[in-house]
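Translate sequence into structure tokens.
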Amino acid sequence: MTGATGGVGRLVVDELLALGADDVRALTVNPAEAGLPAGVEVVRGFLGRPSTMPSALAGMDRMYLAPVIETNAEVCRMAAAAGVRRIVDMAGAKGDHWQAIEDGVEACGVPYVHLEPGEFMTNATLWAAQIRAGDVVRDGYGSAANAPIAVEDIAAVAARCLLEDGHEGHSYALTGPESLTRRERVLQLGAALGRELTYVDLPHDELVRELAAPMGEYAAWYAAGLRILAEHPQRAVGTVAQLTGRPAVTFAAWARQHADLFKP
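Result follows.
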């Protein structure tokens, strides 16, 4: 387990244990502060520093690979040399920024499963400061529609792909259960909070300036993606339900569960 204390990786650990795995090894930068469950073997290491990886990889059969583009190819080669027999990686849509993850995994020769999630529901926290401050959300491309996914669902799929046979060689696109516009998501956040939120649709350049506070240097990149999404909406796919046997989490349910993130 790489990225074992990250937003997805930590949940993969929990899913593996819930499914009965009893030989989980978790990689973390600081084992003393990892807070991982009892019974998990915790080892020190960092994907971004391959020199720390050999002891973590020794004796490992299957690996969940968190996305660190800069060192991905080297770590994958090390995993192959160590005898790892399956890599389940988290990347993104084919051909996008994260394609290098899948390329590195396939080049190393280890049987793989590619997980290709779309936007995370947690990205809605981009609006948290505005919602805590008032009832107006200044955003852009309000009609841009996609099907954001809960990180819990990504973790549930990843755990099953690690434990179950028959997934090797597959690329799984992962989304939430419904495609929503950005304006609809803001309205659903308001419903979860018991408030009426107003969505203000900004022009592109003004949106980039608005996003600069929460996103920094990635603001222009994110806004450009929204412009494309407005022209080519993302539809929902049922992969999560097919692989886990339960419905994917809806955005409305996620908003209710995480309402405190948006309260003053």
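Note: The mean pLDDT is 96.
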